Amino acid sequence: MRSHLLNDATAESYRRSVTEGVERVASRLAATRGPFTGVTPAELAPVIDAVDLDRPLGDSSAALDELESVYLRDAVYFHHPRYLGHLNCPVVIPAVLGEAVLSAVNSSLDTWDQSAGGTLIERKLIDWTNGRIGFGPSADGVFTSGGSQSNLQSLLLAREEAKTDDLSKLRIFSSECSHFSVQKSAQLLGLGRDAVVSIPVDRNKRMQSVVLAAQLEACRAEGLVPMAIVATAGTTDFGSIDPLPEIAALAEEYGAWMHVDAAYGCGLLASPTRRHRLDGIERADSVTVDFHKSFFQPVSSSAILVRAGATLRHATYHADYLNPARTVAERIPNQVDKSLQTTRRFDALKLWMTLRVMGADGVGQLFDEVCDLAAEGFALLAGDPRYDVVVEPQLSTLVYRYIPAAAASPEEIDRANLHARKALFASGEAVVAGTKVDGRQYLKFTLLNPETTAADIAAVLDLIAGHAEQYLGETLVHA
Ligand SMILES: *Cc1c(COP(=O)(O)O)cnc(C)c1O
């Protein structure tokens, strides 16, 4: 069994196995005809059930053969131009290379004595990101597992910085379109049920700063404490960017922590043409970025950035077995002092390889391309009488719904749209997402693949209309 350990003696076997795995994936990518096969849980479950985990196959070729049917054949492929579903991006090759390296070396970024150069590379990327945000020299941050964790940590810092220990008095303000991790974080942080105040959005799905101001004033008048304002720079559904300068001014006026959730919009930090859309982000106390959304990085790669690095001390604990207090005096860089995680992947290496190969402009151009594509898609939808489109995209999402020519009730239209989404998924021809707007069922394209064309969008709109029309035709017959 020792032959399976990766070490000097098994280097040749490592090379062979990994190369074989890479070849399988490469052939699968080349052979993929759609983003999905349409397999159902009922069809796939028996295939996976049939595998006896207590009877190993012994060698990687056999395991890779088996993997074809249990995973590779029916996976959902984000690189396919007709995958338009959630906030998943196709990945860039330098990052995949980084992933292969980091898992083989297997550094753990909690302490210097488990990572050495890995720690310094991560720190340099944090500094790079802070530079792009426009933070000053006292800024800091750390890589995290994802935007949800970054939001949680940011709100933890905000709670600790708040001017009261009475948790029931703390309030967080975020728009009605903010990510659900804000609500979850409030719960995890022990705040009251009413801690999150939902601020309505304008017609472009941006937080209404006038209402925010009124709510802050009401909060103060009631003797409550405005702990944090969460501005979303790229809402999950609409890609809308809250008015950052107005929110920053209010945060200063009311002494609230300003957090910018740029999990999606962070791609603009590298954009050669659209960086100004994030103006005001440099006034935040903390920022969430998800490189695995708009920097074309494999899951996971995310970070929290803070304007005043010292605030990260609220996440610091010292353990004799890991990061004893003396290591601070000895100036040993232990990233665990800044993180909610202990053992932690060297995800930063993927971004490092990406920047070293492509440069920031290279990544930013890819994000620009999908923003341009969204503008084209918006024009298509706006000119198509079969569709109602919600807002002009600020980033790369389009939210729309099919509207039949013949009279139909709002409930029927909801069902027709839901049916079209499901039928499309089952056909495997394209994957789109869904959401609700004012209680009604809508569909969503999240465009993160520069290989997707306007023709793909037009073709998918025809497919959706076809499914919806067929559904409505059948319901009318049966009614
Ligand atoms: C995706 C998303 C998150 C959560 O990020 P994960 O990496 O999925 O944990 C948070 N905020 C926004 C605005 C997002 O779009």
Automatic annotation (TrEMBL):
One of its GO terms (molecular function) is transaminase activity. It comes from the Bacteria. Its cofactor is pyridoxal 5'-phosphate. Keywords: Aminotransferase, Decarboxylase, Lyase, Pyridoxal phosphate, Transferase. Signal peptide: none annotated. The keyword Transferase applies. Belongs to the group II decarboxylase family. This is Aspartate aminotransferase family protein.
